[in-house]
Amino acid sequence: MKGYFFAPVILVCLLPCVPPAAGQTKKVVPARKTVRSRPKPPLPVDPTEGDNVDGDDLTIRRAAVAALGGMNGSVVVVDPSDGRILTIVNQKLALKSGFIPCSTIKLVTSLAALSDHVVERESPVRISRYLSLDMDTAIAHSNNDYFGVLGQRLGFDRVLYYAKMLGLGERAGLDIPGEEPGSVPDGPPKAGGMVLQTAYGEGFLVTPLELAALLSAIANGGTLYYLQYPRGGTDGTGFTPQVKRPLELAPNGISDIRVGMRGAVDYGTGKAANDPLEPILGKTGTCTDFRVSSHMGWFGSFNEVSAHQLVVVVMLMGTHTVNGGVAASVAGAIYRNLSEQRYFAADTHPSMPQIITTRPSGDR
User: Fold this and answer.
1) Please, are residues 338 and 344 in contact by the beta-carbon 8 Å criterion?
2) Model pLDDT for residues 287-310, shown as the tens digit of each residue
3) What are phi and psi of 227, to 5 degrees?
4) CB 250 within 8 A of CB 302
5) Do residues 51 and 91 touch, judged by C-beta distance below 8 A?
6) Residue 108's closest CA among 221, 309, 304, 253?
7) Which CATH number does the domain 58-340 belong to among 3.40.710.10, 2.30.42.10, 3.40.50.720, 2.60.120.580?
8) Predicted model pTM
9) Closest by alpha carbon to 303, among 344, 248, 353, 359?
10) CA dist 281 to 172, 264, 301, Å?
């Protein structure tokens, strides 16, 4: 047929082309599916192992132990009116030399920016071409870009000044055996600069006790107490509150950041801590601490009640399932447990003894 060309057809057999024997049918082997193994959940631990509970408020401790369960983490509960530690779950972890604070550092950034007048609480800060945020929204949703802008406006020296004022880099406790201080950076990170430092806490190492002392100062209106862990009873006998220093901040600095902290629990990153009966204010933190090869989940918080106000700090370590929201859920379970027991219903605190404001001899 003129005008047509027939090319030979070549069949290629990728498997050995051996015809089946007579009377047999060819067996078809289905393709093997690739099964991706799911990451195994971390094995449960006993976070109470080795703890000394002499002097703890056992009602609070039971609630904290139940909420933490088998997670690898620590819970610190403090009375912000006097600095008394009411319980520490996983004391070995809480007293170590510190971990990256993740987004809880944004509390320091906020107070520094308000006190140095680089921003006002309601002033919009442009973080992109089409988006501006005020401080309330930025704290509630833990917006990294917002706090990166504040860090660039402040500069390293001013951030460090306020971080030290708020107790970072020094022991939070008074004569607590085994307590190690956290540390502060000597400069901004080489990669990421002030953005990483003031949004993620890069360069800082913070202990749960340091964060609890900082949250106590925010809760009580600006007094940084030495945290004390008295042993041998919870009736207040032999316990005298001692002030480390009053905070020199903008007059409305603390009240300004409290609005965003309330928003974090009501509708933001810490909403897992929400208790419809007790107002709670808090700040989450989520990141990776590469020094210890662990994901971190932080939640620092306090409640707004007429009696038995508490600061609750939760720090978790583990796999990618650990984050600030999970830490907030632990704190929320503690508050709700105590609320159901009517722990906050009546003020049964002993009368507060005289406060000593001088630094005791021998404290380092």
Assistant:
1) yes
2) 999 999 999 999 999 999 988 999
3) -80, 135
4) no
5) yes
6) 253
7) 3.40.710.10
8) 0.84
9) 344
10) 21, 7, 5
